[in-house]
Amino acid sequence: MSVGIVVGAGGGIGSACARALDASADLTVLAGRSDPRLRATASALTGRTATVVADVATEDGREAIARAALDMGEIAWLILASGVPLRGALMELTPDHIQKTLMTNLVGPTLLIRRLLDGRWLPNASIIAVGSISATRSLPNRSVYSGSKAGLEHLCRSLAAEVAPLGIRVNVVAPGVIDTPFLGGDQPALQVWVSAHVPQRQVGTPEDVADVVRYLILEAPAYVTGARIAVDGGAESVS
Which of 11, 69, 79, 186 stands the most exposed, by the fewest C-beta atoms within 10 Å? Predict the structure, then answer.
């Protein structure tokens, strides 16, 4: 049985990715911290699903995700779409906030990949990390968040070289400003930024990101690995 995994399946981008890849694997494992959100994502899918309420930042959470996938078959694809949007100057952040962000955005996903590599993967399987255009920018009040995403992106691009002999492709999709609850109270300010700095002059949708993820998993040539694709309305091209 082929298994697909979406970590962060209750979020805006994660749920859109699950919909875009609906029934592309025999079983889709939907993992996240909110049971109601996972159930809402599952209800929109036609293929077979399993929901796992788990926090990727914890060992128990990672093991629950791994067991739900590895006990059922061979991994076809893994999407890492979980994250927390820590904002604030470093000197104002608490150690707990910093540790939670790094564990959720970088350390947890790294350890989950390590655990899943103990299992069986299909030929030409894919790992997709959802990064951020913040990973390439020096932005005030984003140092920890940007650092966590930059670490995840570089980890995955380096990992692509390590696991290529195993037939696993690893790519990064880096969203710009996307219309999801992730924006929080910064949405008005970001809309102003988009109007001034994004060539398309509009905020992106979760489906914009999910369509690229789907392409990389199902349609891209096997030679495409170690790539990073920004989905940002052209913001990086003019920065």
Answer: 186
Q: Which of these is catalytic: 54, 145, 148, 174? A: 145
Instruction: Collect all residues with Cβ–Cβ distance below 8 Å to 93 and sequence separation of at least 6.
Output: 86, 144
For the four alpha carbons of 94, 61, 4 and 76, in that order, the dihedral sign comes to: positive
- Give the sign of the dihedral formed by CA 127, CA 156, CA 61, CA 206: negative
DSSP string, 50-119: EEEE--TTSHHHHHHHHHHHHTT-EEEEEEE-------S-GGGS-HHHHHHHHIIIIIHHHHHHHHHTTS
Backbone angles phi, psi at 152, to 5 degrees: -65, -45
Q: Is position 145 annotated as part of the catalytic site?
A: yes
Residues above pLDDT 70, as percent of the chain? 90
Q: What is the pLDDT of residues 61-109, one digit of tens each?
A: 999 999 999 999 999 999 999 998 888 888 999 999 999 999 999 999 9
Residue 192: is its pLDDT beyond 90?
Answer: no
Select from 53, 54, 45 the least CA-distant residue to 18. Answer: 45
DSSP type of residue 31: E
Which pLDDT band holds residue 211 (cuts at 50, 70, 90)? very high
Give me the half-sphere count of Cα atoms (radius 13 Å) on the Cβ side of residue 229. Answer: 18
How many DSSP H helices and E strands does the chain contain?
8, 7
Task: Report pTM.
Answer: 0.93
Strands (E), 131-192: 168-175
Q: What confidence tier does 190 reach under pLDDT thresholds 50, 70, 90?
A: low
Rounded distance between C-alpha atoms, residue 198 and residue 64, angstroms? 40
